[in-house]
Amino acid sequence: MKPDRVAPPPLIAPPGEAVAGSAQSRARGPDRRGRLDRIWSATWRLGALIGLVVLYLGAASLLSLAAVRVGFDLWSGIDPFLPPERRPFLGAVELAHRAFAVDALRQVFLALLVIGGAWLRDRAGWRRRLALDRERPNGMRPVLLLGILLVWPVLHIVWVTGTAELFGASFGQHVRLSPFMSPAAVAAWLAYLTILAPVAEELLLRGEAFARAQAAVGPVAAILVTALIFAAAHVSSWGLARPVSLLPLALALGWLRWRTGRLWPGIALHGWSNLALVTYLLWPS
Predict the structure, then answer these.
(1) In sequence order, what are the residues at sequence separation of 6 or more whose Cβ sits closer than 8 angstroms to the Cβ of residue 156?
(2) Cβ neighbours of residue 267 under 8 Å, at least 6 residues apart?
């Protein structure tokens, strides 16, 4: 017997096309939402990172200003709470000493704040977070690291002086120290440039900031983000000349932090580059 009716053939989608409501089309929605969530999360964490850097720098500046104001006033026999119109006149030398003390103490407070914040966040692993531990082996051969430390300052001098000449800035030309600076003041200034500032800045940027950025966007983007923050923090009256002159150094410091897994190579390169540049600029013509 023949059937009176023949059942219609099932609806088969053409190869390579998804049927509306299928598992493939339903999977695209969550994937897209997941990607947007990751982008939003990374953006939020990077914004929080920039806010944290600003907070650390602002707190260190306020603490150093207060300490120098009170400390120098008490040392000079001045009431630190006198209104401005009743304060005695301070000479140029005294003001210069106070300005240098503010810069130096800012770096001290900055280092202490970063270390204290990392310790409060993870008391057992704060050294690892700031790349100060020696649990992980150095990711770079000592010979290569030594070669970078020897060659990079020359490249740094060429780039900084070339950038200064391009922008018409004076920081890349031969300069002279103030005649009012004593030998002790010169030694303190050199120690600030080669030890104190590199330690504090690397703790903040290639220590705490790099750890946060790497967790949010990965190592390559962390190198770029911390380098841009480092350059932006050096904006001065010369506009973008100073940040542009420091950007290659910032990238090299971030790469060293990632490549070695430690902070000390970056501190050494930072301090050695500062010393080489200052020596070149102060060298008699």
Answers:
(1) 248, 249, 273, 276, 277
(2) 198, 199, 202
Specify the residue for token string 């009431």: 79
Give yes or no for residue 5 having a pLDDT over 60: no
Place of tokens 């509306």: 20
Residue 260 one-letter amino acid: T
pLDDT, one tens digit per residue, over 7-43 is 555 544 444 444 445 555 555 666 777 788 788 888 8
Name the pTM for this structure.
Answer: 0.84
Backbone φ, ψ for residue 229 (5° rounding): -65, -45
Which of left, alpha, beta for 2 (phi over 0: left; psi -120 to 50: alpha)? beta
How far is CA 202 from each of CA 27, 34, 71, 266, rounded to the nearest angstrom?
Answer: 44, 34, 28, 7
* Tally: H helices and E strands in the chain: 10, 0
Q: pLDDT tens across 74-107, in order?
A: 998 888 888 888 888 888 888 888 999 999 999 9
At CA 58, angle to CA 52 and CA 60, rounded to 5? 105
Q: Which amino acid is at 49?
A: L
**202 vs 225: CA distance, rounded Å:** 14
> How far apart (Å, rounded) are the C-alpha atoms in residues 129 and 115?
10
